[in-house]
């Protein structure tokens, strides 16, 4: 395991992040406490120090397990949790990005985690209700109080993130150093705005869903008009896996077979080999799953493999990106000088 700087900060985090959403069985598909500890131990023994949870995960059980697992080495681990999602569905102030929910969420998380501080607090999802000034000032207050060390933002449009960090810079408040987004071979639309923004602002990106909900592992097969998935515990039927996704998954499996590795490892490596500071979140319901995922650190995809995966999964960047990078527009913008200038500011 190697380590990366968490965006525009000096904090060192492992190149993979352990997602703890599966810690607990309240959602009906997670891991028991015993199995969760095995998953955590396997990650820690491999050198992982970056743990990602949330107050909502398994109704608070995930935070409780994480707090217990790291207690003896609290200073060693970089613990991230989140606030925003509702914790009391009939109360409008137990959800959202506003100061009241932020503070009461953090206080409750600190108790469940049995710790005095949170290394990284994520805003979990944008609520389109709370002013950015209120959010950034309240987050800065938490940092100044020593209850939170760093802040990040998840599942939010790029223009909101960039404006929030500009507010923080201008007013001397704490800026976001991390961006958490859905990103995989099946979901590349974030390459239009979010990823170029992250590289421009030096935000570390922690993508979730890197194996596409299991689709990229080859778990789902087409049977007639239905999509079937089999595993050791249950057989479930889905009708919502697009043919395009199955085509991408087939290419992942083809590369994995040639290499003698798992498809999950190929999918994770594709994500972690993209430009910028990319720290994939890996999760598991079983110890053997996390051990398999961790083996992605033993190799890297070569350029031919990356190109093949890019071709099968590429998305249109849309306007204005396709327009500005077209040959005709480059010609009228730069004349004959475009290739004569080395441009380190190009984020596409």
Describe the fold and architecture.
The strands form 3 sheets. This protein has an 8-stranded parallel beta sheet, with helices on one face. The longest helix is centred in the last third of the chain and has 17 residues. It folds into 2 domains: 266 residues, NADP-dependent oxidoreductase domain (TIM Barrel), CATH 3.20.20.100; 33 residues, no CATH class. The mean pLDDT is 94. It starts with a strand and ends in a 14-residue tail after the last helix. With 348 residues, the protein is α/β, with parallel strands linked by helices. The protein contains 12 helices and 13 strands.
- CATH topology group of the largest domain: TIM Barrel
Strand content: 15-25%
> Which regions have little confidence, pLDDT < 50, spanning 5+ residues?
none
Mean pLDDT: 94
Using only C-alpha atoms, the radius of gyration works out to 21 Å
Structural domains: how many = 2
Strand arrangement across the biggest beta sheet: 9-8-7-6-5-4-3-13
Q: Provide the succession of SSEs.
A: EEEHEHEHEHEHEHEEEEHHEHHHH
Alpha-beta content class: alpha/beta
Termini distance? 28 Å
Largest sheet properties: 8 strands, parallel
What's the helical proportion of residues?
25-40%
CATH level 1 class label of the largest domain: Alpha Beta
